[in-house]
Design brief:
Layout (H helix, E strand, L loop, with lengths): L1 E5 L6 H12 L3 E3 H11 L2 H12 L5 H12 L8 E4 L5 H13 L6 E6 L2 H10 E4 L5 E3 L19 E2 L6 H15 L1 H7 L5 E5 L4 H12 L3
Parallel strand pairs: 1-3, 1-4, 2-3, 4-8
Antiparallel strand pairs: 5-6, 5-7
Helix pairs in contact: 1-9, 2-3, 4-5
Bound molecules: BIS(adenosine)-5'-pentaphosphate.
The site of BIS(adenosine)-5'-pentaphosphate has 34 residues, from helix 1, helix 2, helix 3, strand 6 and helix 9.
């Protein structure tokens, strides 16, 4: 199964991508995670991407095509893949189509995560990330059991992701509307199947809806 998970910031692409990746035993390539890892290691990619990420802007298409090419050329991607956060512009979607053609592969579907904006803001402002093990929590979704500043898994400190601060969230949502939302029309007019997921509800409820939508692995 080769899928793209498309949707606004905070729609739950990462959360559901991890669950689907585990169930179907196929790798998930999340460009945001790849970039954050590069930033934390101080690589040339990380140094180039950081200022765009901090501002809630998109990293340039040419840079992102390099990231996608490397991910999709990994041997593990041969048996299927989930792309989370890529493509994000029409130019990236065109680049992905070429990349897949080179590999004689194709997308089975693009899954669009539909979530109203107030819920996106609620999820992003409530996200907390463990600075030791990377576990992700949400104040709004519960599960922290009173300890709102330490990780239930390892005791590490919970922090707000740099780009989840209100002013950056506003810009990420604007950038999404301007640069990424047009992809819905682009895919509607392409040969690729576009599936719409109602991504509102608990994580478990959305997981069930996603499984019903994409079917068996
Ligand atoms: P990236 O990390 O991809 O950010 P994003 O798309 O804005 O994604 P998020 O992680 O905010 O949202 P998500 O939909 O994955 O939701 P999640 O499951 O985490 O990108 C970061 C930056 O990198 C970009 O701004 C850009 O600068 C750059 N970048 C990355 N890819 C790029 C590209 N292709 N081109 C150019 N630049 C690129 O959930 C969010 C929160 O909600 C969590 O706390 C979670 O626990 C909670 N949650 C999840 N599901 C539910 C639910 N059902 N109910 C309640 N809470 C929930």
């Amino acid at each position: 199964m080769n899928l793209v998970l498309l949707g606004p910031p905070g729609a739950g692409k990462g959360t559901q991508g991890d669950l689907l990746s585990e169930r179907c035993e196929i790798p998930k390539y999340a460009t945001g995670d790849i970039l954050r890892d590069a930033v934390s290691r101080g690589t040339p990619l990380g140094r180039e991407a950081k200022r765009f990420m901090d501002a809630g802007e998109l990293v340039p298409d040419a840079v992102m095509m390099g990231v996608a090419r490397e991910a999709l050329h990994a041997p593990a991607a041969r048996k299927g893949f989930l792309l989370d956060g890529f493509p994000r512009t029409v130019a990236q979607a065109e680049g992905l189509a070429e990349l897949l053609e080179e590999r004689q592969a194709k997308l089975d579907a693009v899954v669009y995560f539909a979530v109203p904006e107030p819920e996106l803001v609620r999820r992003l402002s409530g996200r907390r990330v463990c600075n030791a093990c990377g576990a992700i929590y949400n104040l709004a979704a519960g599960g922290l059991q009173g300890a709102i500043d330490s990780c239930g898994a390892c005791g590490g400190q919970l922090e707000i992701r740099d780009d989840d601060r209100p002013e950056t969230v506003r810009n990420r949502l604007r950038v999404y509307r301007e640069s990424t939302e047009p992809l819905l029309e682009w895919y509607r007019e392409s040969a690729v199947t576009l599936l719409q997921l109602d991504a509102v509800g608990t994580v478990e409820e959305v997981q069930k809806k996603l499984e019903d939508l994409v079917g068996c692995c």
